[in-house]
Amino acid sequence: SGAYGAGQSSWGPAIYGLTSKEASDSIAECMRLFLEKQEIKGNVIVASGNNKGAEVEVLDAEPGNSGQGLL
Q1: Is the distance from CB of 4 to CB of 18 less than 8 angstroms?
Q2: pLDDT digits (tens, 9 = 90+) for 38-62
């Protein structure tokens, strides 16, 4: 119904779809109507991705510790 793609997570289970921001509300409403018609209890949530990579902070070793044996 306009989504670029869809998938299922085994943790939940959760079903998700990838859409444009402009289409997200209408696709969410279609999903709500589908769940209602099928008498399936569930929530439809519209969210956006956090398109930011991981951040790594390097901490100094404790005094007297050369850091050997640390991963």
Answers
A1: yes
A2: 999 999 999 988 788 888 888 876 6
The gap from C-alpha 40 to its chain's centroid, in whole angstroms, comes to: 21
Sign of CA dihedral 5, 37, 46, 9: negative
Q: pTM of the prediction?
A: 0.61
- Quick check: bond before 63 cis, omega within 30? no
DSSP symbol at 33: H
CA dist., res. 26 & res. 55, Å (int):
34
30 with 1: CB under 8 angstroms?
Answer: yes
